[in-house]
Amino acid sequence: MNSTDKHQEGMQTRKSVLGEVHVAKAEAAKTSFDEGFQRFITESAWGTVWSSEHLTKRERSMITIALLAGLGHEEELILHFKATQQTGASLEDIREVLMHVAIYAGVPAANTAFRIAKQVFNL
């Protein structure tokens, strides 16, 4: 698959996970400064990793949430909590993932992620 095909596949997957509105806003905000970076993440993250058929979008969503929570990437965590509407990860899935975060990445990281999840989902 060439770069153009990988980019198109990545855009399709990105839209299916994050939603058309989010992707349109991100594309509109792209400048010559970050254009190469945006192409890289679209082809690599979305066109290769998220487009692979070995894991479901629900499974990838849960893995992504665990990693973002463990690493303390709050802005991206909010985005991926919202994306669960498209990926099928349930609140129960998220709760279990955050319990794993508490054990393997630390209680403070999980505590922050639980706080953010409660805000995002109005819990």
Automatic annotation (TrEMBL):
Q: Which organism is it from?
A: Nitritalea halalkaliphila LW7
Domain of life where this protein originates: Bacteria
Where do the Carboxymuconolactone decarboxylase-like domain residues begin and end?
37-118
A Pfam match: CMD
Q: Which residues form a coiled coil?
A: none
Would you tell me the protein name for this molecule? 4-carboxymuconolactone decarboxylase
Q: Which PANTHER family match?
A: 4-CARBOXYMUCONOLACTONE DECARBOXYLASE FAMILY PROTEIN, CARBOXYMUCONOLACTONE DECARBOXYLASE-LIKE DOMAIN-CONTAINING PROTEIN
A molecular function annotated in GO for this UniProt entry is: peroxiredoxin activity
